[in-house]
Amino acid sequence: MENGTKTPIEKRIFTNRNLKLKTIKAVGFDLDYTLANYRSPEIEKLTFVKALEKLVSQKHYPKKLLDFEYEENFAIRGLIFDIKHGNILKTNKFRYVKRVYHGFHKYSKKERKQLYTNKKLDLSSEDYRAVDTLFEIPETYIFAKLIDFFDKSSPKSQSSSYKWLYDDIRWAVDLVHRDGTLKTIIRQNPEKYIVKNELLPMALNHFRKNGRKLFIVTNSGFKYTTFVLEFLLGENFRDYFDAIIYSSSKPNFFTHKDPFKIIEEDRCFEAEKGNIYLLENKLGVHGDSILYVGDHIYGDMLKTKQASAWRTMMIIPELDEHIMIKQKVKEDFKKLIKLFDIKNNTNRKLENTIEELNKLIREKEDEFENLSIENIKQIDSKIQKLTMSQNKLNLKLTEVLTNIRSLEENIDKSYNPYFGDLFKEQNELSLFGDQVLDFACTYTSDLTNILYYSPTEYFHTPVQLMPHDKEPEFLDIEISEINEINET
Ligand SMILES: [Mg+2]
Residues lining ligand 1 (ion), CB within 5 A? Predict the structure, then answer.
């Protein structure tokens, strides 16, 4: 199974910064969406239903909410809540707002520009919050659904701030996670909500090769973590690990110096709370000899990078499906390149025609008195011909632009009907795509993908390209692709 390049593309590990597994002496794991994958949309539906029940029973929201159905494929990671305006935003990597939904109403370009002008979003402001984990997907839908509901049932509330609604939803979702509502249901029927990946024990043993130490740092508590690990790895799950830190309070774990509350110290060091320095001392491994595997862009990737020299592998469960869709829309994408080529040619021809036409009209005007009737007739005939081709070119341009728009919309909707591609926004990286590039040394869809690689694999960064490097003259493969498209 080894050798990265022969690995199926959806199982590959991608590299942002060189990583030599040979130099790694300890590998740490997050729990949720890293060691434990949750079934979608089952887990989202459960959170949705239980959070709405809390709003009805404890915050006296209308009973009608209990009839609402969960719509999967509404939200993606990397979106931003605009709490004040009750909007859900998608920005590009420069933090400029490129897509806005108020409830299920998509803002037109004009509406968007009016509210968000051309300023970068200040994501540290309390008015905004990023959707960083897959656990936050259901509340993003609840936010849109309830805004839609309240705007329609009491239109007056539309002008005021939506902070009350956001706070209530946050409270309800947080509560179902905290008070055991979700955990109790998951524990009663774990197969329904947690994916039992048979390759996980093998993958952990693979990571363990070369005498590497393995550990877990999770924000989940002792009871739930041990339940999930027992479900995934059996009752002897401790045999796989040298240390397990429960209730770790990441990201503070990486930046603060909280003490450990030790639960067990002998075979597998187990503790609650704590901090990175104590853990490194316990393991006897430090800094860039440690690889940390997690799914949270802020708590697992950004903070480790800021506060330590730990290397990272980000788990992006969405990547598998994303790559499948990318393969499906490959042909559409080629057509799009061809259409852009035709658009540019048509535009050029149109500009030349207009220029020639204006030249003839000017000539006729300026020289009219000196021209013979024959000359004038000739010019008129040329003007007529050029006007006809101008009209034809105009019609062609409209047709091409319409085709480009519908093709772009189709490609976009294949990823997500509301927010498009997780990693991109139009031709740029999305905020999420940029963060993955910036903070994760490597990324992959599932940690068991390690089985396709050697335990001492050297993950190389691909050659980085500047826009001028991407010109067809420098990329033979693109020239041949473009020629092929032009010939068809
Ligand atoms: Mg997690």
Answer: 30, 32-33, 295
